[in-house]
Amino acid sequence: MTPSGRGEQEHRGDAPDRSDARVALDRPGAPGGISTPGRTEAPVGPGTPGTPGRHALPLTGACAAWSHHAAELAVPLAASLERWDESPSTASMVEQQLLARILPGVFLPPDLLGTSIRRALALGCALGARLQSYYVIAGPSAAWVLLGGDPPAPAELLSPAHRGSLVGATVRTSRLQPREVETIGGAPVTVPLRTAIDLLRFAPDHVAAPWLRELILSGHVTEAAIRRRLQRMERYPGAGAARQRVGLLLEPPSLAA
């Protein structure tokens, strides 16, 4: 599930009728590697001998660019990150749900991605030293943080700075209002309404439609709130097309077909 877009400057929109207090990460003990056929189980960390096609990832400072809180909660996830060469073997492990690809070549065991906090921090950990304090998880990536499922590729981030270049991620330029961003486990994520609007403006239909329907069905946002916000966006990039798409994309798949 993937999109991209262009630079923008936006104003505050409708705020979702909910408050999130995601401030704790389950700590069942520091998770290690996972067992898969034909692979030696081993913890991943500096100086750890790797199996063929597998490389150690540095653990220091994971998610520290976002906040001290995020860095503390990210420790067990950072310890479980695995870097594998992209190959038919790793593709097969992803297909069998033995690994979840967070970014190209960077994976986690899927059972470590069971909460919104873990999913948000997993993306920050995967970015490693490339993570900037002003990166905000957005678009399909923000929807994935809230809803779960397969990590979208490419990941999507918003930045108030000039558009950057990250392998496996789309970085769009945007000036976000405080009400458009929430903190999940110390990681900044666009609120559900802003996430839905960005999906309509920038994501292709096959990416936007499933996420939009799930955001509404799960109660994170309403279709009425989406329509109201779009009506107030007169001269924003992609807003006109979004107003034309909203009805079609929110139809049930059987009717849209």
Automatic annotation (TrEMBL):
Organism domain of life: Bacteria
Biased composition (Basic and acidic residues): 7-25
Stretch list, region Disordered: 1-56
Protein name: Transcriptional regulator
Organism: Brachybacterium tyrofermentans
